[in-house]
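In response to the reviewer comment on reproducibility (Comment 2.3), we provide here a single inverse folding case reported in full, input and output, so that an independent group could reproduce the run without further information from us. The C-alpha cells appear first.
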C-alpha cells in the first residue's frame, strides 16, 4: 500500500512500515489526513498561489492572446477533460469532486481508485467528511462520455 498524505519521497507498502515513520513525516508537516475541504483558498491543499498564478498569467498575456486571435490562434478543440465529461480541469482525484466525477475517476483509473480507498483505511480518515469513497459514489453514474475516444486516451495515457 502507498500513502498519499504528503508530498515527500517517502513511500510505504504497509501500515506497519508507516507507523515508525510517523515522526519523520511530522518533520515535513504531514498530519496523516487528507486535506480538509474548504472554500478558503489559503486552507486548500491546492495552493491559492497556484490558482492566482494561472489567472495572473492569463491577464499578463492578454496582449499576446489578442495577437494570436487575430492570426487565427483561437483554440478550436477544448481540453480532453471537458470532452470526456468532466465539468472542470483539476486534479483527477480532487477532494471537491462530485460523486459522478469520482465514478468517472474509478472508471478510468481503477488501480488508483483502489489505492485511494486503501489510503482511507491506512489513514483512518475519509476523503469526504461524512463517508468513505465507495459510499460517496454509491449509485452515481460515471461522468465519462464514451463518445470521444481520443479524449479518454489522452486522459489515461497522456498526450
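Designed residues, in position order:
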Amino acid at each position: 500500500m502507498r500513502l498519499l498524505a504528503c508530498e515527500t519521497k517517502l513511500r510505504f507498502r504497509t501500515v506497519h512500515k508507516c507507523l515508525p515513520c510517523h515522526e519523520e513525516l511530522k518533520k515535513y508537516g504531514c498530519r496523516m489526513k487528507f486535506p480538509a475541504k474548504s472554500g478558503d483558498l489559503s486552507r486548500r491543499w491546492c495552493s491559492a498561489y497556484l490558482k492566482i498564478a494561472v489567472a495572473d498569467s492569463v491577464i499578463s498575456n492578454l496582449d499576446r492572446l489578442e495577437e494570436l486571435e487575430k492570426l487565427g490562434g483561437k483554440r478550436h478543440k477544448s481540453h480532453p477533460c471537458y470532452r470526456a465529461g468532466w465539468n472542470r480541469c483539476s486534479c483527477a482525484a480532487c477532494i471537491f469532486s462530485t460523486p459522478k466525477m469520482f465514478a468517472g475517476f474509478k472508471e478510468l483509473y481503477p488501480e488508483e481508485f483502489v489505492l485511494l480507498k486503501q489510503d482511507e483505511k491506512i489513514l483512518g480518515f475519509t476523503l469526504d467528511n461524512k463517508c468513505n469513497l465507495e459510499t460517496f459514489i454509491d449509485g452515481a453514474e460515471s461522468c465519462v462520455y464514451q463518445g470521444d475516444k481520443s479524449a479518454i486516451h489522452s486522459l489515461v495515457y497522456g498526450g
